[in-house]
Amino acid sequence: HRERYCLKYYLEELVKKEKLTFPLKVKKEESPDFLITMDNGVKIGLEVTEGTTPEYQRKIKEFEKNGIEYEFIGSWVDNEPECKWTEIIVMRIKEKLEKLNQSRFKSANRYELLIYDNNDLTLPVRIEEALPMLRKKLCDVLRNFKKIFDSISILTPQGRKEQLLYDILKDKNC
User: Fold this and answer.
1) Distance (Å, rounded) from C-alpha 161 to C-alpha 133?
2) What are phi and psi of 131, to 5 degrees?
C-alpha cells in the first residue's frame, strides 16, 4: 500500500509542478517499481523506497504484530537528528544506486527515486539544516556510480502533513 500511496502523492505533486503530460499510463513493475509512460512516449522508471533502517522496520513489525514494547529514543543534542536522518537517507540512496547499476533494471528514458521518509527519529528533523548536509554527502556518493537517478525526491512529514522535496539535487552541481 505504501508504494501506491507514494506514487499517487508523487504524481499529484508533479502535476502541480507541470512535470507530466497526459494521458499517461502507470504499470507496476519490479526494478523499477513503476513504469510511467506519458502520451509523448517518454518512459519514467520510478523506484520507491523507505528512508528507514532494517532494524526499525523489524521493531515496528514486531510491535504491530505482537504488541511488544518499543523504546523510543528520547533526547538529541544539537543537530543529531539531522545527521542521523542524512545517514539513513544516504544509505538508502546508495542501496538503490547499486540496484540501478545492475542490468536487470527495465529500460526507461529517465529514472527517478522517491524516498518515503519513515524513520524512528522522535524529534522532528529540521529539513532546512539537513538538506545541505545531505546534498554534500550525496555529491560524494554519486561520483562512485556510472548510472545515477535523474532525480531524487523525498516525501517527508512536516508537522501534521507531508511535503515532497522534489529533485533535491537539481540546483546542485556535483
Assistant:
1) 23
2) -60, -45
Judge if pTM exceeds 0.85: yes
Q: How many residues would you count in the chain?
A: 174
Residue listed under C-alpha cell 542524512: 86
- Give, for all 174 residues of the chain, the pLDDT tens digit: 789 999 999 999 999 999 887 899 999 999 999 999 998 999 999 999 988 877 766 766 776 677 666 555 555 678 888 998 899 999 999 999 999 998 788 999 999 999 998 876 656 788 899 999 999 999 999 999 999 999 999 998 766 678 899 999 986 666
φ, ψ dihedrals at 15, nearest 5°: -60, -45
